[in-house]
Automatic annotation (TrEMBL):
<protein>
    <recommendedName>
        <fullName>7,8-dihydroneopterin aldolase</fullName>
        <ecNumber>4.1.2.25</ecNumber>
    </recommendedName>
</protein>
<keyword id="KW-0456">Lyase</keyword>
<comment type="subunit">
    <text>Homooctamer. Four molecules assemble into a ring, and two rings come together to give a cylinder with a hole of at least 13 a diameter.</text>
</comment>
<dbReference type="GO" id="GO:0046654">
    <property type="term" value="P:tetrahydrofolate biosynthetic process"/>
</dbReference>
<comment type="similarity">
    <text>Belongs to the DHNA family.</text>
</comment>
<dbReference type="InterPro" id="IPR006157">
    <property type="entry name" value="FolB_dom"/>
</dbReference>
<dbReference type="GO" id="GO:0046656">
    <property type="term" value="P:folic acid biosynthetic process"/>
</dbReference>
<comment type="pathway">
    <text>Cofactor biosynthesis; tetrahydrofolate biosynthesis; 2-amino-4-hydroxy-6-hydroxymethyl-7,8-dihydropteridine diphosphate from 7,8-dihydroneopterin triphosphate: step 3/4.</text>
</comment>
<comment type="function">
    <text>Catalyzes the conversion of 7,8-dihydroneopterin to 6-hydroxymethyl-7,8-dihydropterin. Can also catalyze the epimerization of carbon 2' of dihydroneopterin to dihydromonapterin.</text>
</comment>
<dbReference type="Pfam" id="PF02152">
    <property type="entry name" value="FolB"/>
</dbReference>
<keyword id="KW-0289">Folate biosynthesis</keyword>
<dbReference type="GO" id="GO:0005737">
    <property type="term" value="C:cytoplasm"/>
</dbReference>
<dbReference type="InterPro" id="IPR006156">
    <property type="entry name" value="Dihydroneopterin_aldolase"/>
</dbReference>
<feature type="domain" description="Dihydroneopterin aldolase/epimerase">
    <location>
        <begin position="5"/>
        <end position="118"/>
    </location>
</feature>
<dbReference type="InterPro" id="IPR043133">
    <property type="entry name" value="GTP-CH-I_C/QueF"/>
</dbReference>
<dbReference type="GO" id="GO:0004150">
    <property type="term" value="F:dihydroneopterin aldolase activity"/>
</dbReference>
Length: 121
């Protein structure tokens, strides 16, 4: 089964980071979430009750990224994956990618970040 729901390029302002300046000034975090979900029932029924409402997922991610700061984006990603997997039984696997476009490190790049994949057990 290869069905997925994805939310790409979600942008939130948060205060996550190890450096004090990141916690004081904050920055934009770009979050991509991919959910492995069996979409066959929803495809046949045309009923949102048979899928995962990506509008609700957006609000869950937003509340975490714009909420309590984490020092590491690895921790932030774990919080997002855990929330999704605990709230949506239809989700078999959650992939979370977090990108910082402007981290406080010298150099030229499009962004730095992490990606995790967590199964819903």
């Amino acid at each position: 089964m290869n069905d997925i729901i994805f939310l790409n390029g979600m942008r939130f302002y948060g205060y996550h980071g190890v450096l004090p300046s990141e916690n004081e000034i904050g920055q934009i975090f770009i979050v991509d979430v991919t959910l492995k979900v069996d979409l066959k029932d929803a495809g046949q029924s045309d009923d949102v009750a048979d899928t995962v409402n990506y509008g609700e997922v957006f609000e869950e991610v937003k509340s975490i990224v714009e909420g309590k700061p984490s020092r590491l984006i690895e921790h932030l990603a774990e919080r997002i994956a855990k929330r999704i997997n605990s709230h949506y039984n239809r989700v078999m696997e959650t992939k979370v990618k977090i990108t910082k476009e402007s981290p406080p490190i010298p150099g030229h790049y499009d962004g730095v970040g992490i990606e995790i994949v967590r199964e819903n057990c």
